[in-house]
Amino acid sequence: MAKRSKVNQRQRILDEAAKLFKEKGFAGTSMRDLGGEVGMEAASMYNHIKSKDEILESICFYVSNTYISQLAEVEKMDASYTKKVETLLRRHVYLMIEDGAAVSVANNDWKYLTGDKLIQFKEARKRYEQGFAALIEQGIAAGELQPVNVSVALFTILSAVRWVELWYRPGRGISAEDLERNIMTILLNGLAK
Questions:
Q1: Closest Cα to residue 105, out of 8, 17, 181?
Q2: Distance CA 29, CA 183 (A)
Q3: pLDDT (tens digit, 9 = 90+) per residue, 126-168?
Q4: What whole-number distance in Å separates Cα of residue 88 and Cα of residue 2?
Q5: Global pTM?
Q6: 12, 73, 77, 137 from 81: Cα distances, Å
Q7: pLDDT of residue 6
């Protein structure tokens, strides 16, 4: 029971840290700030985490590992390339909707990672981008997707959804499902009727 409580407390610290880092940035957030959010003295938090750097690493790698595992699942799907690209994009957006604070930290504060962790994170981002690009390229080669420049397609898609983690929250006048549906329609079919 004590171990489960410690795990839950650690996750609570990570969740609150993601929200604070999103709001104030990694550099602008102190352990004291975080302690105030979770109702603990900064010193007590060290029973659950080693450092602010460890928190950042945990958040960034949770996001990158999620995206990489989603990519691996999609790559193995027995489906058209169009369906694979759509599925990967849906999962990408879903994580932004469901865990926007963590995604925001991984998108904006990863530069504060150091040493091997920075190298590993950059490699994970590159692997995801290369895998996503490969699906687009294969879809083009199969005649399922428009013959466009793969890099332009990839970065247009990724850039076009980047705002979701910054903007979306319940009460914005659009449900998560409708937001996802709108994004899919615009990115995969365009606005023209």
A1: 17
A2: 32
A3: 999 999 999 999 999 999 999 999 999 999 999 999 989 888 8
A4: 38
A5: 0.89
A6: 38, 13, 9, 9
A7: 56
Cα separation of 154 and 134, whole Å? 10
Element containing residue 101 per DSSP (H, E): helix 100-108
Q: Which residues contact 31 (CB under 8 A, 6 or more apart)?
A: 42, 45, 52
Q: Map residue 173 onto helix, strand or coil.
A: coil
Reading the block at residue 42, the tokens are 């900064």
Mean residue pLDDT of the chain comes to: 91
| Candidate from 56-70, 89-103, 159-173 with smallest mean pLDDT | 159-173
**Is the Cβ–Cβ distance between 49 and 10 less than 8 Å?**
yes
- Tell me the chain's radius of gyration from C-alpha atoms: 19
